[in-house]
Amino acid sequence: MSIHKRLNFNFEKQKLVLDTSRSLFSYAGIDQGTKELLNSLRKNSLINYQKVLDLGCGYGVAGLFVKKLYPTCEVVSSDRDSRAVEFTNHNAKLNGLNISTTASLDFEKIASRFNLIICNFPAKLEKQGLLHFISASSSHLEDSGVLALVVVKELSLPFEEIISGLNSKEEIAKLIFKDSSKGYSIYHIKFKKEILPVENPYLIKKSFFNIGKRVYPLLTSPALREFDTPHFTTELIISLMQQLTAKNIAFINPGQGHSSILANKLFSPERIYLVSPDLLQLRVCSENLVTQGYKRFEEMNTDVFEKGSDLLVWSILDEDATEIVGKLKSYKKNNAQILLAGRTNLLKRVLKFSKTECKNEIKKGKYSAILI
To answer: Which among 228, 229, 251 has a CA at the least distance from the CA of 316?
Structure first.
């Protein structure tokens, strides 16, 4: 793990030291929404802290704060990003706190029930995702359990419309606390019965993308990058891939799946590896390959590819040069060809620091794809 910053969080006479990475949400400082959510907890005397779920934990702020404040409580911290789970574990040890963690796409790997669920809800999931989250929470709370969540101001009206809709015939979701500020709204809810979660919470929908004269169907989610159009890095990867051949291909940070779909069409590969710390990326890419009739793929919920391939395709997002060079050292041993795509200046530093020769390069704007 690459630590880019250390934060000191002092709140309610509790002190936490938190290491963060630029790959994680709000790495430079605790975001205001989380602070307001934690502040709301002390205003609600109805909350039982016996067993707590911090869903979408990031680098662990909320769950670790609750554990620090109530040492006897049981805390489970979960996130769809395995890097976030890794940092939460690291920060728990850093602060001498004992909690449980799991990588999970919302509640998929959460089997227990809790007295309190806390969440800083991701705005990109919009109203349908919010309805799913509220509904799914109802089946993961004890009878007297509380869902405490913060949403950006733009989701306040959709949230209240959801609650009104759920309570149209009888009061199912009781709002027991509400607060708001300039940018956020905080809600605490109790449920009188379980609600069936909606389908497609990540708003995955069918779209298309073009390569030359050919049109390919594609499933996309607005919760991921490249929802509307491919990024320059993806366009460069696609261009360079068309000059290559490979039977076993690995994609690190495969995004919505543009490149893996093309690889299936170009090479009819024996095996495709999808490598990402983000479980949603893996879900969308996998569904795209299955939709194309390809099933010989393997998901790896990590940011490090430890196997070998004929071609390793790495879309560089948040890694710094030192981190990339460190990984390249092992990648060059186990992969016949490596295709990197990212900012041109960054790739130049990587080549220099790793003493690696570039075999081919194409550019677009400030971005490049290189073959090594």
So the answer is: 251
